[in-house]
Every structure is written in structure tokens, then in C-alpha cells.
Q: What sequence folds into this?
């Protein structure tokens, strides 16, 4: 097995390499003056089982192109099998036509990765489970949930856990939230976001009893932070005792960090699927937990033809 890292999340790649005790294969990734990407794999990969780690986070187009070019280099270097390890799958939110003459970009990206020559894909918490079916190559969509379950156990005593209420910030996340709540035998609530008329501000209805409860908002993506901070306000308005958030992918576009800092959220826990700038790393309200062990174990199992479904617990 060989591990190769693109440039989008070197820290995560290094952590996965440490988990597996396999060194990262040396790669040069350079730019021509006009910003075209040029890569060179510096070791023989002929006949190798390759795991290429590259989340397609911002700048999404550059990171995606780099992934495709690295796959092409590996195909032409006669790698035996290439697994694209894409912990955060960019363009996932464009998973259906939202109107006339609009694209399904999540499908286009799946086509590009397959056409470039990847044999498998490994990812975490796809925005919509059905994106797995956009690929005609084996695709393992791991759940970040076990990492959060461990973190909640570490940070809440058994007694405190009895007061937890798991909250989906929109109706689309109910299945995900119910699954996490089940691990703690806890109830769920749902934030029902509605805009009565175009141009009128959003109304947040809470489905469920939140008074006096310690709420955990659970989502796959935090981007601008609007969904999360508004949901937190609505929960506190309904008498919640506290609101904390667990989010798999910290996209965190501006002004998310400022919003979180000024919000009533107690803490936002994200994973390291996306590399974060200093401003996120030093934000007192944001804490990162790692998916390196989860991904490392999945890679080990794929390489050894073992079951990956054991990791879904
Ligand atoms: C939407 O369906 C996603 O699950 C997230 O709730 C959304 O992408 C978050 O975006 P923002 O942080 O900009 O409100």
C-alpha cells in the first residue's frame, strides 16, 4: 500500500500516515506561471495499491483539479488500484436540479473522478447519502458519528448525558440526528425553518420540547454559520439550557468564525476533514476532533479486503 497526499489537507494526511505507520510517498505539486498544476510522483508506484488523500475543500476547483491530475499521473505510472480518499466531498450540495437549466454538479464531479481513473472512493458524511450512487465504482461513505459519540462520552458525565437533546437544524438532517440520539437513548428535536414569503425573514419553529435541556445540534456542514447560529438562538428562545454543535465538515466561509464567536453557542465541535486556517484553530469556541484513526482503519481494511461496515457502529 502507498499513501499519497494532495496539498489540501497535509496535516490530516500526515495523521493518517502515523495511524497506519506507512510513510507518505514523495510527490511534487507545482504551478506553472499561469497557475496550471503540474505534479510528479517521486517513487515507483507500478503495481501498487494507492490511497490518494485530497478533500475537495476551498479552493474547491483547484483541489479537485489537483486530485484529477494526481489520479492521471498514477494511472500513467501503472498503479494497480487507486482509491480517492476525499474526506470532504465538495460540490455535494449540488446534488439535484434546483430549477430549469441548472446542473447536478455532485454527479459531474463523480464522473470526473471515475473518468480520471480512480477505482474506488472513500469519503465521510456525504451531504446526501444518494451521492454514493453517483459513482459507478465502489464508494465507501463512512459516518463521522462514532468520533462524535466518543467525544460526547468524554465531555459529558453519565448524569449530564441524561439531559441531552439532539437537534437537527433542518428537516433534511433528521435521520442523521436520530441515529446519533439513539446512541445515547436520547430524544430529538427538529428546527423547521420557513420563509413565509420571498424577501421575508426566516421563521424558526421548533418541533420538540427543549425547555431546560442541553441541546446538541448535529449537522454535516457548517458553511457561513447562519443555519447553526439561528437555530441556536431559536432553541435558547424556547428555554434550552445550553446549545452545543457537532458538525462533520467545517467549511467555515466568512463570516462563520465571527458569527460563532458572537453567538450563544457554547461550543462548535468539527472534524479535521478540512484543513483550517489559524483564525479557526485559535477560536475559543471551535474545537477539532480527528477522523484520522477512522480513515486509517478504513484504509487498512480496504487494503486487506476486510469489511468496512464494522466502522459504521
Ligand atoms: C444544508 O443542508 C447543510 O446541511 C448545512 O446546514 C448548510 O450547508 C449550512 O450552511 P450555513 O452554515 O451557510 O448556514
A:
Amino acid at each position: 500500500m502507498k499513501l499519497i497526499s494532495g496539498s489540501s489537507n497535509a496535516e490530516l494526511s500526515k495523521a493518517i500516515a502515523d495511524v497506519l505507520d506507512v510513510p507518505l510517498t514523495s510527490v511534487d505539486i507545482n504551478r506553472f506561471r499561469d497557475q496550471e498544476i503540474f505534479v510528479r510522483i517521486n517513487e515507483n508506484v507500478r503495481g501498487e495499491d494507492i490511497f490518494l488523500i485530497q478533500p475537495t475543500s476551498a479552493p474547491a476547483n483547484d483541489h479537485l483539479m489537483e486530485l484529477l491530475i494526481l489520479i492521471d499521473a498514477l494511472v500513467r505510472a501503472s498503479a494497480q488500484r487507486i482509491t480517492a480518499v476525499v474526506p470532504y466531498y465538495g460540490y455535494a450540495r449540488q446534488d439535484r436540479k434546483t430549477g430549469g437549466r441548472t446542473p447536478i454538479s455532485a454527479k459531474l464531479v463523480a464522473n470526473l473522478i471515475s473518468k480520471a481513473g480512480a477505482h474506488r472512493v472513500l469519503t465521510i458524511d456525504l451531504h446526501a447519502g444518494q451521492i454514493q450512487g453517483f459513482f459507478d465504482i465502489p464508494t465507501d461513505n463512512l459516518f463521522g458519528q462514532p468520533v462524535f459519540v466518543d467525544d460526547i462520552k468524554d465531555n459529558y458525565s453519565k448524569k449530564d448525558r441524561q439531559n441531552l437533546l439532539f437537534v437537527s437544524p433542518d428537516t433534511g438532517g433528521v435521520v442523521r440526528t436520530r441515529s446519533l440520539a439513539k446512541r445515547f437513548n436520547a430524544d430529538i428535536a427538529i428546527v423547521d425553518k420557513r420563509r413565509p414569503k420571498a424577501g421575508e425573514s426566516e421563521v424558526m419553529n421548533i418541533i420538540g420540547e427543549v425547555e431546560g435541556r442541553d441541546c446538541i445540534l448535529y449537522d454535516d456542514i457548517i458553511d457561513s454559520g447562519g443555519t447553526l447560529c439561528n437555530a441556536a438562538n431559536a432553541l435558547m428562545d424556547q428555554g434550552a439550557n445550553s446549545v452545543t454543535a457537532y458538525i462533520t465538515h467545517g467549511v467555515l466561509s466568512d463570516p462563520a468564525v465571527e458569527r460563532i464567536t458572537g453567538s450563544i453557542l457554547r461550543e462548535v465541535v468539527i472534524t479535521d476533514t478540512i484543513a483550517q486556517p489559524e483564525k479557526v484553530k485559535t477560536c475559543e469556541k471551535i474545537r477539532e476532533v480527528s477522523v484520522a484513526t477512522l480513515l486509517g482503519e478504513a484504509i487498512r481494511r480496504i487494503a486487506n479486503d476486510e469489511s468496512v461496515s464494522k466502522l459504521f457502529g
Observations:
- The pocket of ribose-5-phosphate is lined by residues 169-170, 172-173, 219-228 (CB under 6 Å).
